[in-house]
Amino acid sequence: MEETSSAGAVVQEQQAILINKNEKIKKLKVMVAIDDSDGSFYALKWAVDHLFVAIGTVAPETSLEEVGMVVLVHVKQPFQHFTVPAGPGGAIFYPPTSVVESVRKAQEESSAMLLSRALQLCKDKMVKAETLVLDGDPKDMICHAAEQMHADLLVVGSRGLGMIKRAFLGSVSDYCAHHAKCPVLIVRPPKESST
């Protein structure tokens, strides 16, 4: 119980730093990385609840739109053109253009659904949000986008990979923590209680 109250005090203290009664509130630009994992949506919800709504309670005369905005970034990994040896002599088979286009269309539809869900979450909390869809390696593109957009804070979710999986697969959140040019907040989902 004490841990929660101390965490709340830290958040309020950090928000008080942003707010000086003699000055205007600095508009906070928070970039949140969104993918199809529950962890990324939990991170978005946490950011909206703690970084924007709580500021409104510290400075009630300020609307949430004046406080800042969220930039939702989603990175699509490019479709890999695999060549498959087929037939006698190892002739190479390339996927037909229709297959490639079908995969691209499915990726775009998936991205649109994810960002629509994320935008709705922001809208429900009355937080201004923009979207950004990029193609490439998520690790590099998220860090690059945060730098280009001059984000004040980058928020990423944690999937909770173990040490071995993280070593082999790599971790987007770990990479961003070491390479982003702005502060990075890694939000871990709460541990599920076993009943």
Automatic annotation (TrEMBL):
<dbReference type="InterPro" id="IPR014729">
    <property type="entry name" value="Rossmann-like_a/b/a_fold"/>
</dbReference>
<dbReference type="InterPro" id="IPR006016">
    <property type="entry name" value="UspA"/>
</dbReference>
<protein>
    <recommendedName>
        <fullName>UspA domain-containing protein</fullName>
    </recommendedName>
</protein>
<feature type="domain" description="UspA">
    <location>
        <begin position="29"/>
        <end position="188"/>
    </location>
</feature>
<dbReference type="InterPro" id="IPR006015">
    <property type="entry name" value="Universal_stress_UspA"/>
</dbReference>
<dbReference type="Pfam" id="PF00582">
    <property type="entry name" value="Usp"/>
</dbReference>
